[in-house]
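Let us work through a complete example step by step.
Step 1: write down the sequence.
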Amino acid sequence: MAVDHMKFDYALATVPYGHLWRRHRRAFHQHFSTSQVQKYNGAQTKEARMFLRRLLDAPDDFAHHIHHFIAALIMSVSYGMTVQETNDPYIFRAQQANKGFTDAGVAGRYLVNNFPAMKYIPSWFPGAGWKKTGEYFAELNQLVSRKPFEFVKERMADGTAIPSVASALINDLPAEGSPNREEEERVARNVAAVSYLAGEDTLASTFLSFVLVMCLYPEVQKKAQAELDRVLNGRLPEYNDRPSLPYINAFIHELNRWHQVLPSAIPHLTSESDEYDGYFIPKGTIVIGNSWSILQDPTVYKDPERFIPERFMKDGELDPNVQDPSVAVFGFGRRICPGRFMGDSTIFIVVASVLSAFDISPPLDKDGRPIVPEVRFGGDLSAHPLPFQASIQPRSRKVAEMIHNLELSEL
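Step 2: predict the structure and record it as tokens.
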């Protein structure tokens, strides 16, 4: 459904393994490898500061601010574009596409995935409403992948383009008329577009879980803030602070482990027959990795339902003997998430910035009693916290003034 009918064929997770997949993977890696993501630290820090400003001005709208922050960051890095505060057409289309993709990834959601012959049923036939859904998303995906890419090409032509992943990819394209121009431009367009599809939903779920956890574990929040206060001495964090913040790094490990955004990862298709633990797995079998089970294994992580960053620490440093959650958080094998380094660095600057500036707690009812949110997750392919309320307040008047007075050049 997702590939053949909805045309999500530009996502790395859906491109069939082979030459074209390797070409997509190589192009993405050139811009989002562990050595390359550092060049985006400036954009990440800038957007994180703007996120703090929005939280200060309208803390109750934290969920909206989270989605806007991620969208603004991805569009800035991928296309050099500045998005509108509300009703941005690029963001609206991308969010709709994302919802369609995660919906299509749910096992059993569309029967055509189980009975491929159904694709021959005419669209007017009873029960074939999925065909209209497919047509809608096929058209939407054309807009999602082409519109911002064409915007960058136009800006490059008139000399006003801001450096971005898309502009770099376009600069590297072979000349017009070259035999491989069409394929290379398709790869470039897809690599730029998939950044949003891969990053928005997963990061939003992670940051919402972060707010939820802080409402539930105030003692963890205080410990993280104590480390930040000791290292930062009243300023906002930078990336070069990260090696001096072992508890924050353990916190991020635990955040990734405690709530798996993709509990069953992305389904894989075996490229050849195999045998595992006495089971024969034929070529072409859909294999689903149980990330949730790996990261909730009580023999590896004691009391896995609890949020305990200390499980990853020993003698004040990260303990290399404890299984790193990245073994399952970002997928498996050749199709492990290539944007994982960008995601990790984004999580760091947001978690460190928010905890250095704000106190997060449950809201109070009319009698002054805390309304502790329930741990409830919903969603489809990805799991995200169901809507909840939180109180987000600046830690001091001085902090509020610092955020309010950030120079525009810093933003």
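Step 3: interpret the result. The domain at 19-410 is CATH 1.10.630.10 (Cytochrome p450).
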